[in-house]
From TrEMBL:
<dbReference type="GO" id="GO:0003677">
    <property type="term" value="F:DNA binding"/>
</dbReference>
<protein>
    <submittedName>
        <fullName>IS5 family transposase</fullName>
    </submittedName>
</protein>
<dbReference type="GO" id="GO:0004803">
    <property type="term" value="F:transposase activity"/>
</dbReference>
<dbReference type="InterPro" id="IPR002559">
    <property type="entry name" value="Transposase_11"/>
</dbReference>
<dbReference type="Pfam" id="PF01609">
    <property type="entry name" value="DDE_Tnp_1"/>
</dbReference>
<dbReference type="InterPro" id="IPR012337">
    <property type="entry name" value="RNaseH-like_sf"/>
</dbReference>
<dbReference type="InterPro" id="IPR025161">
    <property type="entry name" value="IS402-like_dom"/>
</dbReference>
<dbReference type="Pfam" id="PF13340">
    <property type="entry name" value="DUF4096"/>
</dbReference>
<feature type="domain" description="Insertion element IS402-like">
    <location>
        <begin position="6"/>
        <end position="77"/>
    </location>
</feature>
<dbReference type="GO" id="GO:0006313">
    <property type="term" value="P:DNA transposition"/>
</dbReference>
<feature type="domain" description="Transposase IS4-like">
    <location>
        <begin position="85"/>
        <end position="244"/>
    </location>
</feature>
Amino acid sequence: MSQYDLTDPEWRVIEPLLPNKPRGVPRVDDRRVLNGIFWVLRSGAPWRDVPQRYGPYTTCYNRFRRWMIAGIWDSLMDVIASASHDRITMIDGTSIRVHHSAATLRADHPDRCLGRSRGGLTTKIHALTDGKGLPIKIAITLGHAHDLTAASELLDNLPSGAMLLADKAYDANWLRSKLRAERSWANIPPKSNRKEPIVFSPWLYKKRNLIERFFNKLKYYRRVATRYDKLGMTFLAMTKLACIRIVLRHNESTA
């Protein structure tokens, strides 16, 4: 058993969430194929290098792509993240460098999702996590996009009474108004040019380091730490798979 493979407790959680196939030719063993997909995710290797113990690499790739298009990875992420009922949430973003093999699409391709920033071609991952630093929602944008670009999408349906922790980049009047309308609160340090006083707790703000730790764990997965995928939807699916694995491993270690 490889260190990247699903453990028995992880498999017991994820197996009931997989789609059924009551008719036709039975699918190749789901656990074996998923282990092959997670091997690519963790190692960052090309699909052609998938070890033989996981079966043909084409089976792993085709399963990953079919389930991505069908929204299976999105559903898994939503179900696993919905188990969190923490009232404290955190939002932030991190830039990911793009490998030259992922930058070959036309500049006007609708799903290129590449921007140019200080580090060259990059894609930015935006994350909303709970108070334990576990992911709730994920989005991607161009690498040079402002952190606020994906904030509206990530903060939709925030539970009433939630407390949002974020850095100064999120100190915007519209964001604070949105949270107040949803009966939530923002603990965001004010920018130096803000004139009206803002209530801010430095003590509570210290918990925000947990989302930085989440990004650190996310980049253990080499397929996320460097973007090798040409399409934005493929890179987003890989990122969500890494998030699923982070939550599963956390739940197993704290069970």
